[in-house]
Write a structure and sequence with these properties.
globular; alpha+beta; Glutathione S-transferase Yfyf (Class Pi), Chain A, domain 2; 217 residues; single chain; four-stranded mixed β-sheet
């Protein structure tokens, strides 16, 4: 396998997901840092590489791969062990749905682009922006918890005792929830799963505070 290059930012939830997946599969990669706070993602050289100007971006053999879930599923296909998707098709649909609750419904409403627009264009103060963040994270995570309870398939992780794409998406969102002071007291299963994930080195080593660019920011 050719060396992979991952364009990442330490606090990007989407990049965090891909770092976890790469670690779980023990796939070596080189990090390229894109500082979202200072606008590096808008520089012409990065836009030439990734026209959307977001992270993560993965480069293999000169080919660009974007969007965290698409990248993770690509990694699953080229490096199927250990699996991040269950073999059973119904269980696959379940963990994909959980991943999408985070990646499609929660995260897009509280990412940096949205918060910048709330502040700079809609002139909302930090109190209003923080309330916005907490509302959408708490609503989404409560729905996530209810899906776990309704299915009754949780073990140490969202589905049984092996981490899947659902756990990969959940852990970065829990990091953000705690960062913004969300109320997680009613989410006992999610908190237990998060603790079990963070007991694994693959999750711990992907955490924002363990990234080289965190030390420079």
């Amino acid at each position: 396998m050719a060396a992979l290059e991952l364009y990442t930012y330490f606090r990007s939830s989407a990049a965090y997901r891909v770092r976890i997946a790469l670690n779980l599969k023990n796939i070596p990669y080189e990090m390229r840092f894109v500082n979202l706070l200072n606008g590096s993602q808008r520089l012409p050289e990065y836009r030439k590489l990734n026209p959307q100007g977001l992270v993560p971006a993965l480069i293999e053999d000169g080919l660009l791969f974007v969007q965290s879930l698409a990248i993770i599923e690509y990694l699953e296909e080229i490096h199927p062990q250990p699996p991040l998707l269950p073999r059973d098709l119904r269980e696959r649909a379940f963990v994909r749905a959980l991943a999408n609750i985070v990646a499609c419904d929660i995260h897009p409403l509280n990412n940096l682009r949205v918060l910048t627009y709330l502040k700079d264009t809609l002139h909302q103060d930090q109190v209003a922006c923080s309330a916005w963040i907490r509302h959408w994270i708490e609503e989404g995570l409560n729905a996530f918890e209810q899906h776990l309870v309704a299915q009754g398939k949780t073990g140490r992780f969202c589905l049984g005792d092996l981490p899947t794409i659902a756990d990969i998406c959940l852990v970065p969102q829990i990091f953000n929830a705690r960062r913004f002071g969300c109320d997680l007291t009613a989410l006992s299963r999610i908190e237990a799963i998060d603790a079990n994930c963070l007991a694994l080195a693959a999750f711990r080593e992907a955490a924002p505070d363990r990234q080289p660019d965190a030390l420079k920011t």
